[in-house]
Amino acid sequence: MQSIAGLLISAARHHPDTGIRYCPGGADAGFTDQSHPELLAEAGRVAAGLRARGLRPKDNVVLVLERPREFLTAFWACVLGGFVPCPMAPLRTDPERWAAQLGHVHTLLDRPLIVTSASSAAELPPVPGAVVAPLDGLYGAEPAVPHRAAPGDTAVLVLTSGSTGASKAVELSHGNLLASMAGKNSAHRLGPADTTLNWVSFDHVAALLECHLLPLYTGGRQVHVEAPVVLGEPLEFLRLASRHGVTMTFTPNFLLGLLNASAERLSETGEALDLSRLRHIISGGEAVVRATGETFLERYAPHGLAPDALWPAFGMTETCAGSVYSRAAFPAVDRGEEFASLGTPVDGLRIRVAADDDRALPEGQVGELQFNGPMITPGYHNNPTATAEAFTSDGWFRSGDLGRIVGGRLTLVGRSKDSVIVNGVNYFSHEIEAALEQLDGVAGSYTAAFPIRPPGSDTEQLVIAFHPDVPEGDEAELYRVLTTVRSSVVMQWGFRPALVLPLPPDAFPKTSLGKIQRALMRRRLEEGAYDSERRRVTDLTRRMLGGYTAPRGRTERILTEIYAEMFDLDAAAVSSTANFFELGGTSLDILRLRGRVTQRLGVTGLQIITVLTAPTVRALAARIGERADADDRADTGAAAYDPVVPMQTGGTKTPLFCVHPGVGEVLVFVNLAKYFVGDRPFYALRARGFNEGEKPFATFEQMVDSYVEAIRERQPHGPYAVAGYSYGGVVAFEIAKALRSLGERVDFTGSFNLPPHIKYRMEELDFAETAANLAFFLALIDKKQSLELPGLLRGRPAEDQLTHLMSLAPPERLAELDLDVEKFGNWAELANRLTDLGRSYEPSGSVPSMHVFHAAPLRGTKEEWLNNELRRWDAYTSGPNRYIEVPGEHYTLMSPQHVASFQSILRGELDRALADADRIAAGRAPLDRPADERGETR
């Protein structure tokens, strides 16, 4: 076989009873079958019509045809006639860009004929010199005799998704495509009995090659449906697969996410699907998020979907689409990873990872992914510069992607042009987008992370554009989501986005495969297209922060300047009422703030708790002034102890009070509290004994009484919501009991990963282990050291133990925390006193219900921890409990890596519990809430 024309001719001869099934609607709609001989005959007639118009072999033809039957007829007409088809998708929503793109292609492809439908012909933007032919007028009386192309002749031109109208046209030869079909089927192993499904438009190479040429090559049946059918109702993708007995299909990751969100509707309606024949779903075009893929497999397993049916894959137009497949290996090979690996190359394709000088790198090292083989494009049409740049001196194609190869399996780590370089470090757009799309209030598949470089800036800056999934007009909720997005970037990647833009869905330009065109969005931003949205965010932020109040005095003025510098704001716009945390400050920013206060104001030793309790410019200035006055008077009298630390005071919902863990401090809650901005107040309860002159609590009961009194000073009456992290879980339980004994409603009581019986764990903790755990909690030592050091330190004097632990800590971390041996020793002693209180604690009594959030335990398995320890809470409640699994381990469930997931789960549980309690109080039944994937009611 010399050309791909032989694929259709062979299918018509050897597989006349199969062919193409066109579905104009969903699974319940009708369909039309076209056999291979019928397609060959219809295409042959159009080929004759093209020849009659004077086209000669190797002439280019642009196909602007959206209906699958029209496109495939015209495509094969070109192939049979010896012409070179170039698929092109109309850009109806952006006429200016559509005109620029069509004009560019007209020049690039040497004034090609444009074939389109009669209706589309009337809508095409005018291009000087362009010739347009409606498909309906091209049918000849008899089929044309097929042209005999050589393997090296160009078979099809595929446009890259240029964002400025300057697309390149990738040349794929007949030889490329035939080699690709053989290579693909070395992985797919399709045959005449298989049925494939495609919903992607044909300007995307995967639709044409993976879902059309490949089943044609193997003689199977192929089902085609237009993209709006699936995008409008994602479940139609699986309904079509079920109805038509599909065995192979293709979809990018974003549709899997939409299907995960739709799975519950199937359960609610009792609708059943038969996915047992679906052997594999190729997922490419964008990174496959492991959690998304795994959830998809789990949620549709009851409908017969095989546990290894999802195949993450990699391919480019230049490699003839899919060329690397993770065949029946996902998710087993990707446990614990954020993104799925992509598997091994098809037969005939060689891959390597290369350094900047194109030298092949050893296994496991990261470099540019490069390809070599008979399915690789010879280059770009009429663009010798781009062609030369795309290949190495020894003939390997440069993908532009960064990856590594381990055990023959490819893993991508990013794309060089889809990244943001901040201060010399690469941050990959798809990783940022995937993380942010997990946040509640951020609509899936409408998030874009891209760089800008403002004039005078010495580094790129990050822009986050997203579509907010919030009620129309709910400014408080929109502000909460804006804050959440900004904080998540800071906590996970360590730098602040320069701009966070909430945009409507139609502001996100996408390719036919649904990939957002980040470069085009960047150009639009630079041209001022989003200026109104920028002003809206600025105005909203100013109003939510309480307007503007001018600073008074030198200290307030300098603090406004410091806040402005830290958060990239205009100092003249920073109010004296501006709250450090509401501006975007995180726990890491507190440490930066302390350094700048020392530099600018000469104030040393600013305590973290001071920033926590006085976060506004005016309040912090007052504290600094009080301290200076006390220093002048040599008066260091201790302020009255108040356990309540107001970490976030905005919002109208019931406040949440969170009790400290066993170390007594509340810094662990700073990042969590940020997600409650505009939602509900978040107060943390801090142990007594940190401040000079304070004595630690003498009894457990004294601690509880103190916290109850402080809570009632902030919130005199219920309903209340209380929770505690680790050790704080049982304290929260006792607080709830005490408040209820006073006749108050407590509608939410939560424990973050601790059972009711803590004395057994407390009895295991001597001073050596308590000090080591504190050091690990503060990131002074690692987990391995925290497990090994107590045995080495036990029996030595306490001061020696503390000195040894401090000697292992990174100096920069000690500087950040302003810790020395004396301060660390005082903290360890306080933690040890809290441990002593827990040794005598025996749970008793009950509350209506507990919400128990469980992560990986300190030791043992999750199952043992849940069933043998945490479920002991069932003995101390009068109603059913909720056990909710959260990501991470005991010490990391609120870390930057996991806090975004944890807050979403926690806030959801809070909202549900408080709403149900209100319904019960009003004499109505609570909503029926079946167990979800994270939690179960017992």
Describe this structure in words.
There is one protein chain. It contains 31 helices and 33 strands. It has 938 residues and is of the alpha/beta class. Residues 930-934 have low confidence and may be disordered.
Residues in β-strands, percent: 15-25%
Give the neighbour order of strands across the main sheet.
Answer: 2-1-10-9-11-12-13-14-15
The helix fraction, in percent, is 25-40%
Measure the end-to-end span. 65 Å
Q: What is the alpha-carbon Rg in Å?
A: 32 Å
Main sheet specs:
9 strands, mixed
Provide mean pLDDT, rounded.
89
Segments where pLDDT lies below 50 for 5+ residues? 930-934
Q: Work out the helix count.
A: 31
Helical/strand content category: alpha/beta
Number of strands: 33
Descriptors:
39% helix; eight-stranded mixed β-sheet; 18% strand; nine-stranded mixed β-sheet; elongated; 938 residues; alpha/beta; single chain
What is this structure, in a nutshell?
The protein has 938 residues and is an alpha/beta fold.
Task: Spell out the blueprint of helices and strands.
Layout: H1 5-14, E1 19-23, E2 32-35, H2 36-52, E3 60-64, H3 68-81, E4 84-87, H4 95-108, E5 113-116, H5 118-121, E6 131-134, E7 154-159, E8 169-173, H6 174-188, E9 195-198, H7 205-218, E10 221-225, H8 227-232, H9 235-244, E11 248-250, H10 253-269, E12 280-283, H11 290-300, E13 310-316, E14 321-325, E15 344-345, E16 350-354, E17 367-372, E18 379-380, H12 384-390, E19 397-406, E20 409-415, E21 419-422, E22 425-428, H13 429-436, E23 442-452, E24 461-468, H14 475-493, E25 499-502, H15 518-526, H16 531-544, H17 553-566, H18 587-601, H19 608-613, H20 617-633, E26 644-648, E27 656-659, H21 670-673, E28 682-685, H22 700-714, E29 720-725, H23 728-741, E30 746-752, H24 759-764, H25 767-777, H26 783-793, H27 798-808, H28 811-817, H29 821-839, E31 851-856, H30 862-869, E32 882-889, H31 899-921, E33 935-937
Parallel strand pairs: 1-10, 3-4, 3-5, 5-6, 9-10, 9-11, 11-12, 12-13, 24-25, 27-28, 27-29, 29-30, 30-31, 31-32
Antiparallel strand pairs: 1-2, 7-8, 8-18, 13-14, 14-15, 16-17, 17-19, 19-20, 21-22, 23-24, 26-28, 32-33
Helix pairs in contact: 1-2, 1-7, 2-3, 6-7, 10-11, 17-18, 17-20, 22-23, 25-26, 25-27, 25-29
